[in-house]
Design brief:
Elements: H1 11-16, E1 41-47, E2 50-55, E3 64-69, E4 74-80, E5 88-89, E6 93-95, E7 98-104, E8 111-117
Antiparallel strand pairs: 1-2, 2-3, 3-4, 5-7, 6-7, 7-8
């Protein structure tokens, strides 16, 4: 995984080349979101052949991160945030082999930042 910051030579051209219509991708896997009305994806990051999505979990003690394999088109992991009553992970970012996840508590009065080492991530873990 590269940690190099790629710089665009022509931002306007790159922006204008973004497609007007997105592509729908469907991933297979058993997945349940208890409170779909108030819970939703907070952030998306890309790591190798994986998409990582942080997800708040309104009304529950922990949020979670969903890991999708872009080759097999399957959900391969659902990782709960480790701290009780911190159910609101936010926008996420991958830097090198690390996933950085800010997490707020249920009352939005405190936050933590978690660092996950992705270097040994496989579908079997």
């Amino acid at each position: 995984m590269t940690t190099q910051n790629v710089k665009l030579q022509n931002v306007k051209t790159a922006y204008n080349n973004v497609a007007n219509k997105g592509t729908l991708y469907k991933f297979n896997g058993k997945f349940r979101i208890p409170n779909m009305v108030e819970s939703h994806v907070q952030g998306v990051a890309h790591y190798g052949n994986y998409l990582l999505l942080s997800h708040n979990n309104k009304g529950y003690s922990q949020g979670f991160i969903i890991v999708l394999n872009t080759e097999s088109m399957k959900m391969v992991h659902k990782i709960y945030t480790p701290d009780e009553h911190y159910n609101h992970p936010g926008g996420i970012q991958v830097i090198g082999n690390y996933l950085i996840v800010p997490v707020e508590n249920s009352s939005y009065s405190q936050s933590l930042i978690h660092f996950y080492d992705l270097s040994e991530m496989t579908d079997s873990k």
